[in-house]
Amino acid sequence: MTHPSDHRAYFFKIDTTIKKIRNALQKQFNETGFDLTVDQWVLIDHLYRNPGISQNVLADLTTKDAPTVTRMIDLLCKKGLTERRMAEDDRRKFLIFLTPEGQAKYDEVLPTVVDIRRKGWGDLSEEDYRHFVRIMDSIYNNISE
């Protein structure tokens, strides 16, 4: 007996959906003149919710490798949106914070992100969302084992 997922390219469907969302966000960012990439927004979003985390934790949260996150943080620092502060308990470790300009950028960009999310979600219900999260969590956990 074959498994239902054997013949269904669910990964392709997930991947193409994510790319569609990212492209829509980037297009909107460009048209609005935000001077951000979607990946930079993801870092800013995580830093807004987790001020003062290390680059390694940020890499884990965003599923990006540490060198990529370092380069992205360097760019965001040059733009004046983030800053590195030495950890008080370990002088070898830096913690990342949004600057006031970075917090203002978050506030400026968030409504556009929310608008794209709402557009994508359309008329799906709260129950649809619960099923979606359950299924995605299950796939994630199955792969993580």
Automatic annotation (TrEMBL):
Species whose genome carries this gene: Larkinella rosea
Q: Which UniProt keywords apply?
A: DNA-binding, Transcription, Transcription regulation
Record has DNA-binding as a keyword: yes
Answer yes or no on keyword Transcription.
yes
| GO MF term list | DNA binding; DNA-binding transcription factor activity
Q: What is this protein called?
A: MarR family transcriptional regulator
Its domain of life reads Bacteria
InterPro entries reported in the protein's UniProt record:
HTH_MarR-typ (IPR000835), WH-like_DNA-bd_sf (IPR036388), WH_DNA-bd_sf (IPR036390)
Q: HTH marR-type domain spans which residues? A: 7-141
Taxonomic classification, please? Bacteria, Pseudomonadati, Bacteroidota, Cytophagia, Cytophagales
UniProt xrefs under PANTHER family? TRANSCRIPTIONAL REGULATOR, MARR, TRANSCRIPTIONAL REPRESSOR OF EMRAB OPERON
